# Entry
Amino acid sequence: MDPVSSLDNYPATVTPAELALLDSLAPSGTKRSLQGRRRREPKYVEFHPDDDPSLYEPTLFEHPDEYVPYEDWEGRIIYWGLSPIIPQGELGAGQVDYGDTQRLMTRRMASNLYSSWSSSELTETPEQQFVNYLVEKQITKLQSMDLGDLPQRDYTLKMVVDQVKDANGHDRIWREFRVSGGLSIAALADKVLTPLMGWVRNYHAHAFTVHKDGAVYGPTESRAIDMMHPQSIGWGAVPETSNRGVWTLAHLLQAEGETMLWLYDYGDRWTHLITVEEIAPVSTSTGKVAVLDGAGACPREDCGGHDDWVEEIEKLQSPDPRVRAEVLANIQHALNYKHQTIGASFDPDNFDLVQARARVHAALASPDSVWSGPKSFVHPITKEGMRGNPGTLPDRLKKGQTLERTWDGDGRFMQEVTSSNRDKKLGACCWTCGTPHGLSACSACRKTMYCGSECQRLHWKAGHKLQCKSRK
Ligand SMILES: [Zn+2]
Ligand SMILES: [Zn+2]
# Structure
C-alpha cells in the first residue's frame, strides 16, 4: 500500500499526546522537540515559531532562485527537484521515495500551524511558500517563450506506463499517438491521454512534469479526492489553464527525444513516461489527433498502483480457478471496466486499437471535464449522505453546470458536475478531429467547435443533428 494513504484518516489537529507518540516513532534527529533545538535560518521561506525546521529537507533552507534541483541518474528532474520526494539511485523515472513516513506525517500535521496562523499573513506551509515562488517564476518564463512554429507542427509521442514490465523487462503497457504541438495540455490530458489509456475522465487528478526543468503542471482547481496528496507532485503545480495563460504541448516539449512524466492519480501514482518521437514539419502537419499503436490493457482504476496491478495480472495465470475468478471480478467492478463484460478471455496484454480510437473520439466530441466537480461516490447510509460528499463538490454550480447522480449499483451513487457550456475557445480543440487550430462554433447551438465544414458535417452525421437541437 502507498504509505501515505494511511495518513488520510489522521485527525485534523494534533494533540500533545499524538505529538509525543510521533516523537517516539520518529528516527533520531527528526524529533519534534520544541526546546533546545538549533534553528538554521532559511533564505526564503518562513517557519511558524512553533514548527520545527529540522523536520524539513535542506532544500527549503535555500533561496528558490539558487537551489540546485535534484536530478536522477538519467539526468531527469521530477517534481521541481525537491527532496524527500527525490528518487533514490535505484528507483526508476517518476518512482518516488517518500523517505521517512513519520517525518512526512509530522510535517502534514504541522501544516495546521500555518492554516490557523491568524496572527500573520503567512498561511502557506514552507513547502507551499517555496513551490509557489517556483510556480510564479515558471509562469513568467512561459509567458515570454518564443515557440516559433512548434504549435503548428504535429508531435508523435510514445507514452509508456514505466513501472509495469513483462518477465523480460520490456514495457507491457504503452501507447503511440500524434497530436498538435498547439494542443493545450488540459485538453491533452482530459481528451486524449486519459481515454487513450483507458482511465476514467474527471475522476482522479493528474500532473505533467517536464524532465528538463522539473516544472509541474496540473489541474490545480481540481477537487478530486487524490488532491489530498500534494507531496506526490512536489507540493504544487503551474495551473494548466488560468487567466495567466493556456499552456500547450509546445510550451512543455520542444525537441525530439525530450521526455515528461504524466502522473495519473496522486494516490495510486500511475506514472506514464512520454517521449517525443518525432516533430513533423508544418507542411505535413494536420493538427489532428491520431491514435497509432499500443500494447497492454489499462490497469483497473483504484487497484492500488503498479505493484498491485502486476500482482493481480500474475494471478490470472493461477491454476486455481477461484483465484482467477476473484481477479476478474475485481476488474469487472472497476470504474473503467464496469461498462464492459470481463470474462475468462480477458488478456491484460491485449490492446484494442479500435476501442482506444473510439474512446478518444468520444472524448473529443464532448465538453471539457469540470474539475471543480469530479466524479465521486456517495454512500447514502443516512439522509445526510445524500446531501453530498463534502470537499468534492463546488459550493455553487455555475450557469450551464449540472450535478449528475447515477446509482452505482453497489449501494452508492456516483456524482459528477457536468457542463453544457461551450469550452473556452483558447485551449479548445475540434470536436471531430482534435485540432486546436482555426476553430469556430456550430452556428446553430454555439456549443460545439469545429476546424471547418468537413469536420462539422461528419459530427452532424454522427449524431450532432439530434444533439444540436437539445443543446440550444
Ligand atoms: Zn476538425
Ligand atoms: Zn450545434
Remarks:
- Residues 23 and 408 are 43 Å apart (CA to CA).
- Residues 430, 432-433, 435, 450-451, 455 surround zinc ion (ligand 1) (CB under 6 Å).
- Residues 3-143 form one domain.
